[in-house]
Structures are given as structure tokens and as C-alpha cells.
Amino acid sequence: xxxxxxxxxxxxxxxxxxxxxxxxxxxxxxxxxxxxxxxxxxxxxxxxxxxxxxxxxxxxxxxxxxxxxxxxxxxxxxxxxxxxxxxxxxxxxxxxxxxxxxxxxxxxxxxxxxxxxxxxxxxxxxxxxxxxxxxxxxxxxxxxxxxxxxxxxxxxxxxxxxxxxxxxxxxxxxxxxxxxxxxxxxxxxxxxxxxxxxxxxxxxxxxxxxxxxxxxxxxxxxxxxxxxxxxxxxxxxxxxxxxxxxxxxxxxxxxxxxxxxxxxxxxxxxxxxxxxxxxxxxxxxxxxxxxxxxxxxxxxxxxxxxxxxxxxxxxxxxxxxxxxxxxxxxxxxxxx
Length: 336
Ligand SMILES: [Zn+2]
Description:
By secondary structure, this protein is of the alpha/beta class. The chain has 16 helices and 5 strands.
């Protein structure tokens, strides 16, 4: 996937394209940020750009250049079969071992076989065993000419400080819903399903595309509806609090869903111009579930939900956090 197909990560992509076009690439980068937002795809895009046999666009042209995506080098890199581009991932899904790093060090000292540079993508880089991390540090301290190291991580601070200081960090952010919708559409989702799944994905394309995404999305929508309708009566509200608080992890997940819905409700409440970024169906659903609550009320609901999330992070009792949140939501929308 060349740079032009990376969705919603304009800033990191621009930075890397410019560095590459200007011949100013660092020897090691660390792509940090949440899961499923395009870090590894960007690493592959950079590997393609560096080794592409016929890059498109010229450095002096209007566009920064990019890999063609179609030549022998690009297709082999995309398929994980290029001799100069190696993905180092945990063996047996646990950790990156010292043997893998020794292999990397031995091969990094050789010249590139076919491409311009030998590229190593370590993903997830924070899953290196300590001996492996120390061995990797030695390679970074005296990096072989013509090699480029791309570390990919969701936990930049978990890397050895000495490794961090030798990599240029490139931060990736959560994907906006409009970008998630584009990614889902590319995978053949229709517009309505894509909009709902994008709203429930918490900014992660990986989550949006997970096999259980459709069910999770439906379950989340149902939960949001149950919670809002329980605000109408105090006994129903207390019942709902009890159900929500049965399991701390499920409550955390529920809060994410409730917050995503409330954020949309706030956008819908700002005014018609802002609301247009939500699909018409979603706007109608929001109005139905919230009883067309005004923006000020929605913002108070949001504050109650954020506070509950914070309280859980500080190890509050789930039952207490859930009850307090629901009571505040009820008050916010003016139910006595
Ligand atoms: Zn190419």
C-alpha cells in the first residue's frame, strides 16, 4: 500500500514522504500510537517508496513522490517476499527473541540484494525480550550503512530509553470516523453499516474490521438504547446500574460505547452544518434515543460519562460509578 492509500494519517505520512524525497530519512524511526491506525501499513509504504523501481511524481513536482505500488519490488514488499524488507514479529505470538535480533544484525551488515536499502520492520517493538533489546541497541549504536529500522509500537514508553533516544518518534493518532468509513468501504461495507461500525470502533481500523465487529456494533447500539431508556424511571435505572456493574471490563467497554454515542449526539446538537458529518440515519437514531435532548444536556451527560470512566481508572467500585453516572445522566436530561 503506497503512501497515497494510507487513510487519516496525513501528518506522519507527509513528514516521511518529505524526508524520503529530500534524502533526509533518519536511520531509525519509531511509529507510535494506538492499535489498528495504520502504523505498519505506513512502514510498508515507506519500504515500498525507498525500494520502488519506478516511483511516481517528482521531488520538484507539485506532489511529493510515492511508490508506484505495482512494480516487482512494490508487489513483493506488499506480499512480504522482498529480500531486503524484513518483518520481525514475535515468534509464536509472544516476544521478539535475541536469536531474531542476532539474525537481523548479521544480515544488516550485508549489502541490499535488490533494493536501495535493507529495511527492518519490528512490530510490536515493545515485545522485545531484554537481551534482544540490548542486542538491538548495539545495532542501532553502529547502524550498518544502507539500513533503515522501523519500530512499530503502541507503547513507546515501554521501549528502552536508550533505544527511544536513537529513533525518531513519529506519532500516529486514532482514525476519525470519516476515515474509518473509507477503510470499511474499501472492504466492501455498505454506507449505513460502515457508519455504525466506524462509530463503535474507537478510532481503530483493526477493531472496525475484526470478524466480530458487526455483532459488537449491534450489541453496543442496543446497550446505548437500553441505558438511555432506563433513565425514565428510578427502578429501571437502578436495575441498569446493576447490570452494567457486573463486570468491570464490560462496564469500561460500555462506557466507550456510551461516550462515542454522546459525542455524536453533541455534534448533532451543535447545528445543521456540524450534523451533516453524521449520516442521516445516525442523526435520526440519536434524536430518537435522546428524545432530542438539547446540546447543554448532552454535554452534561458527556461529563457524567467521562467522570465515570475516570473513576473506574482510579479503581472506584463499578456499581457506585455506574449508579452515580446514570443518576447524573437522568438529572442532565431533566427527568425528576
Ligand atoms: Zn514500485
